[in-house]
User: Which sequence fits this backbone?
């Protein structure tokens, strides 16, 4: 979920809770008008307005993104503590309708059921009970006639059972939230893996043909709009079928992985290396000319010839390549066709050769007779 969406959700919840506090404020005003408070009505009005406006500051903080500096960006627990403290204060100065204000505690508990952790919910439950008992203790000390112990006992037991119900509900919500978060993480990982598989070759880890064509289309768009050029190199591992036939397909896969690692090592971050299939590979060298591209392929061919595998220490591996430059505004298919034709010419010349569009750069690799690959 994007941060803006999370902020919108936090703001909506906070506004709804503020409306709940406002309804409680109006109820207290009506009770004050009817004489249920031991303090004068103006004091009741002042207390409830401070409670409502104070809670409104949380709404403003979320609306202005000031909440993002805190670990709990929803500010759930501070909002609950603020309202609970004022509820306890109001309860200590009310007569006869104290059980009605207990509903305010439960309203606050329901607000935190969807956000607090199990530890936080248990802690706030203890805090709520402590506030309620402190209010009763203050009333008993200053207005003992207002406290009927038997009645208060049954009210407290009923309130405690209600809190236990909310505690169980909050625990279930917390467990469900953890489960959903874990599943979301797994799903996100699976989607990421699917996206990775959609653009990469499973064996070598290089990009696949699908992604290569997408990137070539982007490179073509850049080249058509500006003085930007790129080079396409078509590579083929020489006599790879013989390698598979002589040493087996598992070894052939190891050879392909080894060449893929070599490609990744030789390329810059802005370049693209892809496997078309079998032993055919393509390089897309960004903002590069034919001379530089030839140098890259030559270094790659030298390193490839030097590579050894312990399963076949005497095996000398070579490659052939065709190098061409994109010529705007031609199609990508035309560029690839030209590179493929150059590769075909390199293979016809005996392989172990790099064929470049410019005639003077058509430089074959000459090795002694005893070093020619099998």
Assistant:
């Amino acid at each position: 979920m994007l941060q803006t969406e999370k902020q919108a959700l936090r703001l909506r919840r906070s506004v709804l809770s503020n409306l709940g506090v406002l309804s409680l404020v109006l109820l207290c005003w009506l009770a004050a008008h009817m004489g249920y408070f031991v303090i004068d009505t103006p004091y009741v009005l002042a207390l409830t307005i401070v409670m409502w406006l104070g809670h409104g500051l949380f709404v403003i903080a979320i609306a202005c993104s000031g909440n993002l500096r805190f670990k709990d960006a929803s500010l759930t627990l501070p909002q609950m503590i603020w309202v609970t403290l004022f509820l306890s204060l109001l309860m200590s100065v009310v007569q006869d309708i104290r059980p009605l204000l207990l509903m305010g505690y439960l309203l606050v508990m329901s607000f935190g059921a969807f956000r607090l952790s199990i530890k936080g919910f248990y802690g706030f439950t203890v805090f709520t009970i402590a506030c309620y008992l402190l209010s009763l203790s203050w009333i008993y000390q200053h207005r003992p006639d207002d406290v009927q112990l038997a009645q208060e006992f049954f009210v407290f037991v009923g309130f405690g059972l209600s809190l236990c119900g909310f505690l169980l509900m909050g625990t279930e919500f917390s467990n469900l939230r953890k489960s959903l978060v874990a599943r979301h993480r797994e799903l996100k990982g699976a989607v990421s893996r699917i996206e990775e598989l959609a653009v990469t070759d499973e064996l070598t880890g290089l990009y696949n043909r699908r992604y290569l064509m997408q990137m070539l289309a982007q490179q073509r768009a850049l080249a058509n709009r500006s003085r930007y050029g790129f080079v396409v190199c078509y590579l083929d591992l020489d006599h790879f079928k013989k390698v598979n036939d002589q040493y087996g397909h598992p070894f052939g896969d190891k050879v392909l992985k080894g060449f893929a690692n070599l490609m990744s090592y030789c390329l810059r971050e802005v370049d693209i290396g892809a496997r078309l299939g079998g032993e055919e590979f393509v390089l897309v060298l960004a903002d590069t000319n034919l001379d530089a591209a030839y140098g890259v392929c030559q270094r790659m061919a030298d390193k490839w010839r030097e590579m050894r595998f312990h399963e076949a220490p005497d095996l000398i591996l070579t490659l052939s390549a065709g190098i061409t430059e994109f010529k705007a505004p031609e199609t990508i298919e035309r560029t690839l066709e030209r590179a493929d034709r150059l590769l075909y010419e390199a293979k016809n010349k005996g392989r172990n050769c790099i064929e470049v569009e410019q005639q003077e750069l058509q430089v074959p690799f000459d090795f002694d007779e005893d070093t020619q690959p099998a």
Observations:
- DSSP finds eleven helices and six strands in the chain.
- Confidence is low (pLDDT under 50) at residues 359-374.
- The chain has two domains: 3-194, 209-371.
- The first helix runs from residue 3 to 33.
